[in-house]
Amino acid sequence: MKGPTAAGTLGGLVEIVEREPAEPWEGLLASPVGGSAVGVLVLAGSSGRVMRERARLLARQGITALTIRWFGGPGQPAAGDL
Fold first, then answer.
1. Strand residues in the chain grouped as ranges (E)
2. Which of 4, 17, 41, 63 could make a disulfide contact with 58, Cβ separation 3.0–4.6 Å?
């Protein structure tokens, strides 16, 4: 993973840390500073895209969130091939 990036606070919500997964993955791991006992995997529906804003929203609420491109990216099957 690449190094952490502090995203700051927003409206009194929790400060978060963001990390980008290493190749071959495309995605974002967002977590509250200090970690969390709860984590979720955020997947887009039929688009397969990376849901960065949704992961950040969850992290600001105190939940660690990982979002990845799970199809349609380089070296991955297209949506119709699943």
1. 5-8, 16-19, 27-32, 39-42, 64-68
2. 63
pLDDT tens figures, 58-77:
999 999 999 998 776 676 66
Has this prediction a pTM greater than 0.70?
yes
Distance CA 82, CA 13 (A): 38
Q: How far is CA 66 from CA 36, 38, 81, in A?
A: 13, 11, 24
At 18 the three-state DSSP class reads: strand
Kindly tell me the burial class for residue 19, based on how many C-beta atoms sit within 10 Å of its own C-beta (0-12, 13-18, 19 or more).
Answer: middle
Among 13, 20, 29, 2, which residue's Cα sits nearest to residue 62?
13
DSSP letter, residue 77:
-
